[in-house]
């Protein structure tokens, strides 16, 4: 596999001023050292709770915000070192599909103006004329070119997202960064848009970074998966590896909550984590736990991204963290203590071997 996009130790911090006189400055560490590889013609799913930094990473990758530090390479070229012409080409090569097709399309512009706008912005006259090019793009995404004069409100949510995709494709990009592209759509329509993205990928050789909190959707579309927590990637790998053999406790917790439509629903309460035996049914949501692990209910909100925990960012909520000193010396045989749930891990996640402070009892 050949990488089309590589991200190396990417950081995006937002400075915040606090205090009465707003003199002290700290930072929201929205993206805090992310490394990823997207292979050509493949889909990399990026999952994680709300606030984990997915959209921030997406915005940096499409170039609407500069990174604080780190490298982004497209086709092996460091984007910060491109010539002016190279930067212009880059803005064509990497396009974004947004979450909400209701707010991301200008209601005062016709579909033909929306889809054709990238040509105007980039000063491009497509062969055969803009009108024909827009017609072709609409056909490509399964819309009737005769409807090009209509306005966004005359389309359904799924059709609007097709308009957004047509617009993103106008400049023949290599990479689409899709930020929750189906989250705002009815479940019945989500599948159609996912199928369209898959067809377009096969037809045009596109590569996708696909951001979502719905692990079911990601499992369907992604070849590779990265799991983000508090600005960092805690686990990444091929789709089957991650879904069938998750190593990181946070991934296991997310996956154990998959039967619930919105995984974040289960990820709230008060401090720590509890693990319910397999086969139990949640009294509130009615959802049953799947797999051998049972439902892992993460309690409490993630720590603040202004002051994230050192080492593994998940350790403050991790039921395995207290076993870490032993885990570090003997990862393969480490067992959770008797009073901790045994999750049947084949091995303690290697990611925990780094730098995690022992927790106070
Ligand atoms: P969601 O699933 O809700 O879309 P996300 O994973 O996309 O969440 P981000 O929107 O990237 O998360 O936000 C990551 C963190 O960065 C959050 O704590 C957010 O409040 C903060 N953040 C995002 N944009 C800014 C900004 N412009 N200024 C300051 N903080 C920001
Ligand atoms: Mg987001």
From TrEMBL:
UniProt keyword Secreted present: no
Cross-referenced CDD domains: ABC_NikE_OppD_transporters (cd03257)
UniProt cross-references to Pfam families, sorted A to Z: ABC_tran, oligo_HPY
Superkingdom in the source lineage: Bacteria
Keywords: ATP-binding, Nucleotide-binding, Transport
Gene Ontology terms for molecular function: ATP binding
Residue span(s) of domain ABC transporter: 5-255
SMART domains: AAA (SM00382)
Transmembrane segments: none
Record-stated family: Belongs to the ABC transporter superfamily.
Protein name: Peptide/nickel transport system ATP-binding protein/oligopeptide transport system ATP-binding protein
Organism of derivation: Promicromonospora iranensis
